[in-house]
UniProtKB/TrEMBL annotation:
Entry protein name: 3-hydroxybutyryl-CoA dehydrogenase
Keywords for the protein's UniProt record, in alphabetical order: NAD, Oxidoreductase
3-hydroxyacyl-CoA dehydrogenase NAD binding domain mapped to chain residues: 5-183
Domain of life: Bacteria
Biological processes, Gene Ontology terms: fatty acid metabolic process
Amino acid sequence: MFQRIGIIGAGTMGIGMAVDLVLHGLETVLVDVEEKHLQRATAEILQTVRFAPMLNNKYPRMAEDDVRSLLHTTTQLQDVEDCDYIVENVPENWSIKEPVYLRLDEICSEETIFGVNTSCISITKVGGITNRPDRVIGMHFMNPVYMKPSIEVIRGYFTSDETVTRAESFLAQLDKDAIIVKDQTGFVSNRISHLYMNEAAWVVMDGVANPKQVDDLFKKCFGHKMGPLETADLIGLDTVMHSLHVLFEEYQDTKFRCCPLLKKMVHAGECGRKSGKGFYTYAK
Ligand SMILES: NC(=O)c1ccc[n+]([C@@H]2O[C@H](COP(=O)([O-])OP(=O)(O)OC[C@H]3O[C@@H](n4cnc5c(N)ncnc54)[C@H](O)[C@@H]3O)[C@@H](O)[C@H]2O)c1
């Protein structure tokens, strides 16, 4: 059984991971670069844990002190040295991810597994810069983490069978199962879903329909739970844009060319739910 989990990055996914871990009684070390991000994250984690039993009665009611006793926040990466499993959630940008892995490889025990929570970046590429490529595995959690029963697990070129088994054990502790796929940029879910979110942005930019019409077509006609633009807002338009850049760079295929409207919104700070405005406006 895993006891103490290191979560690197306290943004959309890091917060979601910490909520899920705390709700399952696991000790969580949450790392970010600035104290203000950790304070915002802690407030959101406390609030989400408070509401979780109302959304799903399998979750326990937890007092704030109980949450705080499991959740440790820090700006020092060094503090994850005694964690038995790491899930990294820093932005979808190689220049940010690479130094994090180089440092984690120095800090963490040889046994520690690195779970890469990336949207698109190759797991083989991440494993290749560490001295433990067999213990690096893609863990593509879905948002919001505590509401999703399955995740996409990606086997890098060197990921060992034992690491896959241990990843499945970790997921079992969170009541999740794994859909295991091979490694190629964007894997399955995002190689497909980013085309659809990007094209939806092109449709809006071309003035064919407004965001609500686009999403309504997918929900009311195709029976999807969420439309492509609501999904993009939930993920974060900056993350969608970075992922499209990764896909375009890898495949050199113009089908992944990021819609200029998406770029403009990100440059204007309209990143979706997390910034309060994207294709829709949200109460903060
Ligand atoms: N948003 C989603 O729905 C989603 C789903 C699955 C996977 N992902 C992937 O998860 C990763 C994180 O995405 P996100 O949406 O949470 O991004 P985000 O921008 O919301 O959060 C990233 C966090 O990482 C922090 N950070 C930056 N550099 C750091 C460092 N060196 N050390 C520690 N923390 C650092 C930032 O301050 C920020 O709080 C990305 O690779 C993304 O592609 C995102």
